[in-house]
Amino acid sequence: MSAGAIADKAADTPGGRYRWRVCAMLLAATTINYIDRQVLGVLAPFLQQDIGWNEIQYGYIVTAFQAAYAIGLLCAGAIIDRLGTRIGYAIAIAVWSVAAMSHALAATVGGFILARFFLGLGEAGNFPAAIKTVAEWFPRRERALATGIFNSGSNIGAIVAPLMVPVVAVAWGWQAAFLVTGVLSATWLVVWLLWYRAPERQPHVSAAELQWIRSDPPEAVVRVPWSQIVRHRQAWAFVAAKFLTDPIWWFFLFWLPKFLHSEYGLTLTGLGLPLIAIFVMADVGSIGGGWLAGRFVRRGWSINRARKTAMLVCALCVVPIIFAARADNLWVAVALIGLATAGHQGWSANVFTLTSDMFPRHAVGSVVGMGGFAGAVGGMMIATFIGFLLQTTGSYVPVFLMAGSAYLVALLVVHLLAPRLDPARLQQSGPELPAA
Questions:
Q1: CATH class name, domain 224-422
Q2: 61 neighbors 119 (Cβ within 8 angstroms)
């Protein structure tokens, strides 16, 4: 979706439409973010042959990315808050742009581990920076839409990568695939630094649009320390859900091309269509999962019943993946995996909403940060485990069994820790600051 298309779509909203061009920039950054991180997954089956790493070593390469991503999630928010959105976002994308291109220089396992580590460190800044940008440019009533638009870049990137990467790699070599995606992020960085300013400093923003952006009444924002949050079972319910299920999504991103190559003999160019089909289904699931919970609420169900029923439906969509490792037909496997990715994305939409169901707005960011860190740690652990498992057994069956059961286990844990999704009662002991 281009900046012009988003602006035209929002043309009838009050106060002008320049803020939607900002939203288009965030969409582009998130799309590039997911293209950059998925290049290795698409090329992995063939790099493994060229460079000679084994399954354990590939697990270590993925683990390096996850470890850095976890560290970055803990640090990125504070850095962006201190330096501001323009410079903070620029630093994050500069780090991941250089890291993405540095993969082209890697010739050993150690080289790929180093490149992946810095890529994870830089990419961790994307979502904190984008969410903060939305808060600066949009009134509260439009933030959900703006966030939904830029977040769709994650699925767009997952679809674009298997389309673009094989073509570039076949034409100019695998190194070119990393260079091209790195150039995309570097180009975005130049445009961002030349073009982005805060709303008050952007000359193209009309007085009416600025008034609309700042139309919310100011409210006090109370900083809630983690020591307050971790005392509540509701926080651990969210953390557990992310820890148990985020690693499955990382498995989909980094191991599906290897699975399709090893089980069905797909060539580099043959991977594109199956991967696109899988991630298009994921996109549908992302929308459908949120719609389903809303549908239940409109029918008069309680938030607790609606949210958990939608999560149960999504969890059940993942269960059939246990048969994918033994599927005789490629497209049967694609359908089972696509259904599972759709279930994950619908699950994820509802899990993120748990935070606003149970916590006040001023604590949601901290809770989401804790959950994101837990999910990255889980992904780091499963990456190493899968590497050893595949090196030892050569079978994906245990991995798909684990994926098929993870969501039902996570839902049970969520229900035990937060049986009614009661709001957490936080002590507001932190200093009050004026809201941005």
A1: mainly alpha
A2: no
Q: Residue 93: CB partners within 8 Å, gap ≥ 6?
A: 29, 122, 125, 126, 185, 188, 189, 192
pLDDT at 387 over 50: yes
62-68-71-74 Cα dihedral, nearest 10 degrees:
-90
Residue owning tokens 């460190």: 121
What residue ranges do the domains of the chain occupy?
Answer: 16-209, 224-422
Q: Collect all residues with Cβ–Cβ distance below 8 Å to 165 and sequence separation of at least 6.
A: 35, 38, 39, 42, 43, 177, 181
pLDDT at 385 over 50: yes
Mean pLDDT in residue range 39-61:
91
Residue 43 identity (one-letter amino acid): L
Q: What average pLDDT is seen over the chain? A: 87
Pairing verdict, β 432-434 and 220-222: antiparallel
Residue with tokens 């800044």: 125
Residue 147 above 80 pLDDT? no
Fold matches, 16-209 and 224-422 = yes
Alpha helices in 299-420 (DSSP H): 303-318, 330-358, 361-393, 397-417
Just give the CATH number of 16-209: 1.20.1250.20
Whether residue 197 has pLDDT greater than 80: yes
Which candidate, 152, 141, 158, places its Cα nearest to that of 34?
A: 158
Q: How far apart are CA 193 and CA 313, in angstroms?
A: 44
Provide the token pair at 250: 């990382």
In 3D space, the residue among 123, 111, 95, 96 whose CA is nearest the CA of residue 47 turns out to be: 111
